[in-house]
Structures are given as structure tokens and as C-alpha cells.
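Q: Predict the bound structure with zinc ion.
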Amino acid sequence: MLLMDTHADTLYRRSQHPKEECDVTAQKLAQGGVNVQTMALFVGGSPRLERIAQAFSGMWAEGERLKSEGLSHITDYRDAKEGCRAFIYSVEGCDLLDGSLHLLHEWRQRGVRMAALTWNYENCVGTPAKVNQSQGLTPFGREAAREMARLGIAPDTSHLSEKGFWDLLEMGVVPLASHSCCRALCAHCRNLSDEQLRALFSAGGYVGVNFYPYFLDDGGHASLDTICRHVLRLLSLGGEKHIGFGSDFDGIECKPQGLSGPQDFPALLNALRRRGVTEEQIEGMAGKNLMAYFDRIDPRG
Ligand SMILES: [Zn+2]
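A: Predicted complex:
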């Protein structure tokens, strides 16, 4: 079984706090049987473009270092093989585009396969959930989303406003939410409503369940069982072929009980089995669904 994770902030944490022990390391990925870890280039703590550009160069450098630590770099989830330990780049916040599509091409050349249109700052592309749910994509944002679709970069709505999410679906662009949960179970603005989830699944999109306790439970009290509840709800909404895991490791300061890093993925999969999730559904969530999503948005010759 191939196991993939659609979001971690390890590159940012490593570049900003080089002395800290990260949640995600080659060793912990191997312990947990994770084959592909998505590594985000994250805009960071300042909306200033020079600061973001500086942070990105630090994170590209950390990506290079990962290669000398036993992880291979792949540029397509569908290239993953049993036993491989690999990472793939994503972008979290398109602020650096600064009104031009040029950088998208460079990102794609360097292997970026998902890009969150916004982080928590309003940018040239659109408005985040945290700022205003009813303000969507800018005209340039629509252009950027179309170009991403053309390049095979998945437009990631995980931080985007609800309006931005609906804008994408109306345009016929099939997004993914790389690290979000169910709003019906936890009322955080970053989570998706049942209506959004049903629409996303029927459009062929994808959701990676976030492990942040405050996205899983209103009081922030989360265990493996809390994650199972979100998975079961997603399954009940038609998500069987459209969901997986987007841990947010190294971007979250607390974790669910029993899940402190990628090494604990087997415990999570076992908890899902105990809740009646079938082996076929687990294989889908672990990796097959993500590969099928890319088959839909970026068919290979
Ligand atoms: Zn995030």
C-alpha cells in the first residue's frame, strides 16, 4: 500500500528553527510507512514580498538538504513506488506571483504540484477564509487558476475563502483542499461545509484531512478517534474516492493524542479499521485517491 501526505510545513520549520527536532524526518516517515510527503513552501509570518522571497530561497535549500538525508525528490505522485521515501513540493500562498503568471512556470519546472492560492493574507489571487468568506478570486486569480490547471499544478483551496472555492468550481477548475476538515464537526473557518464537500467530491476534487486538534474539535481535544469521525463523515458525504491525509505536521503546535508524527500513521490506519473502514477505502485514502485525482486534473499521455 502506498501512503502519502498532502501537507507539512517542515521546510519552513527547518529554515526558521534549524535546531528544533522536526515532526517529519526521513526516519519517522520510514517508521510510519509514508512513501510521499508533500513539503510546502510557505509564505511565512509576513505579507512583505521580499520577506517571502527570502523565506522561499531558504526552503528550496532545505529541500536540497532532504535529498542528502535519504529522501528522494519526485515531481509526480504517480511516480511513487512501494518502499520509496520521497517528497514533493507544494506552495502555500501565491503571494509571490505578484500579478504575473511567470513564476508558476518556474515552480512547475522545479516540481511544485499543488499551490494554495492564499495563506492567511489577502493577495493578488484572492481572499483567505480567515479574512472574508464572501470575497473570492480576483480577475488575476482566475487567470492564475486556469494556468495552474494547464500546468498540472493542483489549485489548493485549504486557506481560501468560501467564495473563492465556489469561484473555482464555477470556472470548471477542480481544486483540492490539502489540509482541511469537516466544518459540521468543528466550526473553524478553514474547514469545509457539507455543501462544499459534496460539491467538491462530485466535481472530482480531493480533501486531505488535517490533524490539527483545533480543526478536528471545537475545544481542541482530539484523538485518533476524532480523526476517524471526520473520515466517517467525509465517507458519508461521498468522499470514498476523494479523501486522504494532509497532516500539517511541523505547522501545528499540538497534535491529537496518539499521533505525534508520521511514525504514528499505522496507529491511525488501525483506528480506522476498528471503526469499520474497509481495506479498500484505506488504500484509497492512503494514496490511490490522490493519484486518481492527478489522473483527472493532469492526464498522462
Ligand atoms: Zn496551512
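A: Residues 4-297 form a domain with the TIM Barrel fold (CATH 3.20.20.140).
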